[in-house]
Amino acid sequence: MSILRPRSAILTALLGCALSAQVAAAPAPVVSPQTEGAAASLQLEDLTTPPDFWGAQLAPDGHYVAGIRRNGRQHVLVTIDLDSAELDAVPQTIGKYSISWIRWANNDQLIVYLGVADRIAAVGRDGVSLQWLLDSGSAYGSRKFHNPRLVSALPGDPEHILMSAWHDGGRSLFKVSISTGGEERVAAGNERTKYWFVDRAGNPAFRIDTNSNGSVWYVYARQSKSGNGEIRWRKTHTLRRDPSIPGRIAFEKFRPLSPGPTVTSYYVTARPEHANTVGIYLYDFEAGKYLETIYSNASFDVTRAIFDPDTGEPLGFFYYADKAVFEMRDRTIQACLSVLEERFGSASIYPLQASTDRTRLLLLARGPQDAGSYHVYDATTRASHPIANMHDNIARRALAPAEVVKYEARDGLALTGYLTRPVGAGARDTPPLLVLPHGGPERRDTLTFHPLSQLFAASGYQVFQPNFRGSSGYGRRFVDLGHGQFGRAMQTDIDDGVAHLVNQGLADPDRACIIGTSYGGYAALAAATLTPDMYQCVISQAGISDLVRQLKAVRTSQGGDSEAFKYWVEYIGHPKTDRVRLEAVSPAYLADRVTAPVLLFHGQYDNIVPIEQSKIMERKLREAGKEVEFIPTPTGHQVIDHSSQPEVFAKIMVFLQEHLPVD
Asked: What domains can you pick out in the chain, each with its CATH number?
């Protein structure tokens, strides 16, 4: 479940980079089209097309990169010989199957997951010598194992991997032979077991189970192991699902990362009771206590660490400030990363993997003007070589630059936002402003590629994304500042960001629109009713219009003792004791104040914010004689999916051109 955990050779591979004052450029990516010449503007079709290349993996010996390439409706395996002068990219089909993800098992074999077929297999890098694992090649109805997942590649054992699969009424853990597909059960799970984590020897360390509806995850740690192999478990943490995002778990409380230096220790991300920000800790899972603070940052939540799988030593730590930040323990390596960051400009650089001979490093670049590209850094030549773009069409386009905006709220709180301006916009230009508050609200925006912002910028708009109080990533105290502040300080933080742009001469106060989804949808409706003269148009997707009714709906569907209801009460208020206060900032009660046209979208199958919330708002606006249009979509809480994207985006652009035209 963790990412960004390269092999130990990352140390010396990066060290070679640091010896050079600059990183040489290279020709266009070998798996993607060339992007030279005058670039056209981004098109809607570019964003609605699935990725062209993803999941790149560097072989342990550094001679090959493997990845997944879209070939029509099929996803095929691609291998690239890094020792070839042409860096040939060779596509390999695996029968009629489409590949979802890949991992190198050793220098010659890959583990591939065939998603639609729900099968895992070992395959040679040439796409042949297929070996089904956990007998997943048989017909589904007769299979003993279902929904297989890779748990560990077992460093030091190239002949075996650890997998979990549904078997005999529960998800159990198995040691599987790559050559024969045969298995040995390591530990038994139950019908609610979802994930396994193992120690360095491959023994179970943690098991994660869910409640009946999947809204809560329970972390069980190994307490002891008897002589006959039976494991005693102890529940250590309860993790709630983020109610704004289906399936997303609030892992800031506790997340296993990598085995520690002893048989009972594990490196984890956590935010203990005494801490403000999420940090990296060494945790004794049998004793149930934190042994040592490995790394923490006073201002930002740390979300990942990079480990040496041979020694288990933490090599560096990852968090988001504005861009992605890697802080490596070795200063020379840190200097190398700085060189790479300068080479890639505004893009964040993610070191993914390094070869065991310590000469090659696989990188992922992603930023406002890079929708994702893979590169290999060669320490011997001190040059970076592009391998592939994740989105070929987008790589051909002229993407808009984005910048960090620092401002103060009216109470003095320091805030950050991001401003994307159209290509070629001058310092004194004031294109129409679109304000995009994020959802959650316990989420945040970063300085990265944002599809919607780029689409709007290509149409001549500038886009502002504020991280108001209550956003995640800045520590618990910043989140707590948002509690009880729906329609109040959280809302004025957005207003103050717009005022800052106006005062800086970057925006025209009479040409602005606000657009949001989920909590952002509520913020858009709140803006329409609390500051009705501030925006010329309003677009809400899956937004809450009646806070009291929303809280009651959660209590009815999840239960008064549920984690979801407790979360909303903690963040918003109680539907009974805080009713008057909540109604005062519920847009449905303030529809008569609206002066701007309103466009509403809502998924018909939304089980987080019921579609009735938008239906209520539409009715109230019509009763008040206001201009409103409501479009239900055949989706869930995520209003925009692959099926609804064209219709929703096209309708938004027509609405904007009518009410906030670009000069």
From this structure: 10-34+51-396 (2.130.10.120), 423-461+470-488+501-546+586-659 (3.40.50.1820)
